[in-house]
Amino acid sequence: MEKRLLQTLPSLSGEPECYLVYDAAVEAFAARLLSGGAFRGSLALEVSEQAKTMDSVLTVCRFLLEAGATRKALVVALGGGTLTDMAGFAASIYKRGVRYANIPTTLLAQVDAGIGGKTGVNLDGYKNMLGVIRQPEWVWLCPEVLSTLPLREFRCGVAELLKTFLLSDAALYADAVRFFSGLSSKKAFSEDKSMVLAGLSSKTGVFEDRLRDLIGRAAEIKEGIVERDLYETGERRKLNLGHTFAHAIEHEALRRGDDIRHGEAVAMGVVLAARLSEALGEDSTDKPWNDAPSARGLSAPSAHGLSTPSPHGLSVGSASLAGRLAADFAACGLPVDCPYPIASLVDAMHRDKKGETEGVRFILLRRVGETEERVLQPEVLLELL
Ligand SMILES: NC(=O)c1ccc[n+]([C@@H]2O[C@H](COP(=O)([O-])OP(=O)(O)OC[C@H]3O[C@@H](n4cnc5c(N)ncnc54)[C@H](O)[C@@H]3O)[C@@H](O)[C@H]2O)c1
Ligand SMILES: [Zn+2]
């Protein structure tokens, strides 16, 4: 697979036909792109999980049809995961599939949703029931676009980014926790809670460079996993760490009318997955961090902050894996305690199975960088957690 993650917008001048489909929340950024004159047409969509449906996909398809888009078209999707999922799906079915490219505008989409080619929409309240896997032509990772992102959304992206590092690299994970937990105490966050990254325009640019670096690393790790397992028949499934719980939590939240974002559910889900791993004896609690493949051979653990106490007073090596993860995610401003009883999650997992007869697949974390898959009947959670 050729390199698809870009740090700058590629020249569109050689493109015969470009169309911009964008999230209305990033109107100003879209206007800047459109002023370049490369696009034949554009469509703004009001984005929400409820509107992530075939109706919206058909709106995009009709727009392309009315604009006279041919099979040479390139659809550029500008927005968070909701928008890129829908626009990517529309492009993938319009005239049996035209090319699309992503400019993800949420942190979550930059490190996760915008990469990997999973596109799709919800059906009758069931998440991502319709869709295809089709790779984007390219993905432009532009941290500047995050400057208007609400803090809560930003933190959701932090949850997915930490999850990705947990799958692969203890040093990066520790680095990211230090960076994002440090941000919580910075002025950029406390002065205006609705605008995350005043720091993006900081004079030194150090903040931006660091953020760009972490986004790039997470995106590359995900892309690498996807390259090795395009259709999620094996390794790619580990990206679902925490997600069996997260989806149950989201399902339950939807049922009760609670407001829980996907990234927040992922934070809770990763902690629950670690608890389950421990309960099943998967966690090697004897310093799992230092045994992680990528941490081996690095200098002292303190070089990547692993031996220092977390802000919650848990020192690594003395607490359980789940306890340490909970402390880290909480320090980054994420909720880590699932508000629902395990029995509710078990019910939600049954509802989510939709006719599948075997048990439910869980990704367990033995240590940073090492996961294991287990298919379990949800009821065992009642005994184990
Ligand atoms: N395809 C995949 O592999 C994949 C992976 C993970 C999640 N997803 C999907 O992604 C969706 C969630 O995506 P998300 O977390 O990016 O959220 P989102 O796309 O729903 O965006 C969150 C909110 O932020 C707004 N927004 C987006 N960018 C902004 C910006 N720069 N400034 C201000 N506001 C902005 C949006 O309008 C929306 O209100 C879910 O539907 C999920 O199923 C897909
Ligand atoms: Zn996710």
Summarize the topology.
Layout: E1 5-6, E2 18-23, H1 27-34, E3 41-45, H2 54-66, E4 74-79, H3 81-93, E5 99-104, H4 107-113, E6 118-123, E7 126-133, E8 139-140, H5 151-166, H6 170-184, H7 187-190, H8 206-228, H9 243-256, H10 262-279, H11 288-291, H12 321-331, H13 342-353, E9 360-367, E10 370-376, H14 380-384
Parallel strand pairs: 1-8, 2-3, 2-4, 4-5
Antiparallel strand pairs: 6-7, 9-10
Helix pairs in contact: 2-3, 3-4, 4-5, 4-8, 5-6, 5-8, 5-10, 6-12, 9-10, 9-13, 10-12
Nicotinamide-adenine-dinucleotide binds next to α3, α4, β7 and α5.
Report on the architecture of this protein.
By secondary structure, the protein is of the alpha/beta class. The chain folds into 2 domains: 5-145, Rossmann fold, CATH 3.40.50.1970; 151-384, Dehydroquinate synthase-like, alpha domain (Up-down Bundle). The protein has 14 helices and 10 strands. Strand 2, helix 1 and strand 3 form a beta-alpha-beta unit. The longest helix is centred in the middle third of the chain and has 23 residues, at 206-228. Mean pLDDT is 85; it is low at 187-196 and 283-318. The structure holds nicotinamide-adenine-dinucleotide (NAD) and zinc ion.
Q: Count the beta strands.
A: 10
Mean pLDDT across the residues is 85
CATH homologous superfamily classification of the largest domain: Dehydroquinate synthase-like - alpha domain
What is the CATH-assigned architecture of the largest domain? Up-down Bundle
- Percentage of residues in strands: 5-15%
Form type: globular
Give the fraction of residues assigned to helices: 40-55%
Query: What ligands are attached or bound here?
Result: nicotinamide-adenine-dinucleotide, zinc ion
Give the H and E element order.
EEHEHEHEHEEEHHHHHHHHHEEH
CATH C-level name of the largest domain: Mainly Alpha
**What do we call the CATH topology of the largest domain?**
Dehydroquinate synthase-like, alpha domain
Quick one: biggest sheet? 4 strands, parallel
Secondary structure tally, helices: 14
